[in-house]
Amino acid sequence: MALVQQQPQSRTQAQQKLEPWRDPKQKPYVRVDKVTKKFDDFVAVDDVSLSIYRGEFFSLLGGSGSGKTTLLRMLAGFETPTEGKIFIDGVDMSGVPPYRRPVNMMFQSYALFPHMTVEGNVAFGLKQDGLPKAEIADRVREMLDLVQLGQFSKRKPHQLSGGQRQRVALARALVKRPKLLLLDEPLGALDKKLREQTQFELVNIQEKVGITFVVVTHDQEEAMTMSSRIAVMNKGYIAQVGTPTEIYEYPNTRFVAEFIGSVNMFAGRVVESEPDHSLIRSEEAGCDLYVAHPGHLAPGSPCWVAVRPEKIVISKDPAADAVGRNQTQGTVREIAYLGDVSIYDVDLDSGKRVRVTAPNLTRRTEMPITWEDRVYLSWRPFAGSVLTE
């Protein structure tokens, strides 16, 4: 019998599978529809609408008071929206108590029972549901193997490291097989090195179980590492939703650009606005700023150009192709050597301070650029983003 060769997926098909939000035929798994939450006169969440798709690792990112935890608690059912509705798998959650929602939540404190063993903690919810002992044992064993804690099943929480306790809490949340797992600052109690390691472990576990994760975090690096998409929140509203690349490379406001990573912001006015570029005149930058993307502003309009520090080239010599655009001069005031990169703070002739991040590609004991050096800063046309608010 002849074998039928399967045709490879087109790029569009592959993207729709990995990025369902780009497929108009896909329906959101979680839909937040014009939700507002007020505590007396304080508006914690302000008219938020959001769509999250099945299998996503979705992050709510923001600082203190941004509304991210309140929104997570409304998804869990611990808070009731003042206005608007929340749908999970097409079902309106209005009036549905937390224990009847297809949701589980992992808290920042982990909330493990100190008198129970690891397997006892993981089995607790299943026992409360009255599942047969054999099924409980099988599911607990399967989950402990998934989080690589099978050999620690008889230990108590105080006999585990912080990372191990975090994985016990995760196993306990996943063992009930929720449709949606909510995680409130899940890595906040871990040290930096362990947190970085656990980020990848968490993503691998999420991919294996296939459950939709929604995580609240204030850590930008954490959100960028783990998420399929990020919602950046500010003062109760969503400032931008996008993939980590979209949020970082194409911020839609000054707030998002400054909240995610480090950025240099140059104020100016539009000189040209064409289908393939914008030209911004900036006294602050000390040069004209040429940005290679479709112009959408009227000449004379005020705006800002955001340029990330790693996009800027620092040199003692001018760039030959700059021709008065995207190149300025200044004096090095501060240097930080971090091993893999060096950070330079440069005071421009206009008085504005600019940060540059340069990779250390070769081994050396002396830096080619040092304090008080006069330097040129330049960047390519596609390095900047034009922002209006």
Oligomer: single chain
Helix content: 10-25%
Number of domains: 2
Contiguous runs where pLDDT drops below 50 for at least 5 residues: 1-15
What amount of the residues lies in strands? 25-35%
Mean pLDDT: 88
Give the number of helices: 9
Distance between the termini: 64 Å
Q: Which architecture of the largest domain per CATH?
A: 3-Layer(aba) Sandwich
List the helices and strands and how they pair.
Blueprint: H1 11-18, E1 30-39, E2 42-52, E3 57-61, H2 68-76, E4 83-88, E5 91-92, E6 103-106, H3 118-128, H4 133-146, H5 162-174, E7 180-184, H6 192-209, E8 212-217, H7 220-226, E9 229-234, E10 237-242, H8 244-249, H9 254-259, E11 264-274, E12 277-282, E13 287-291, E14 302-307, E15 313-315, E16 327-337, E17 341-348, E18 353-359, E19 374-378, E20 384-387
Parallel strand pairs: 3-8, 3-9, 6-7, 7-8
Antiparallel strand pairs: 1-2, 1-4, 4-5, 9-10, 11-12, 11-14, 12-13, 14-20, 15-19, 16-17, 16-19, 17-18
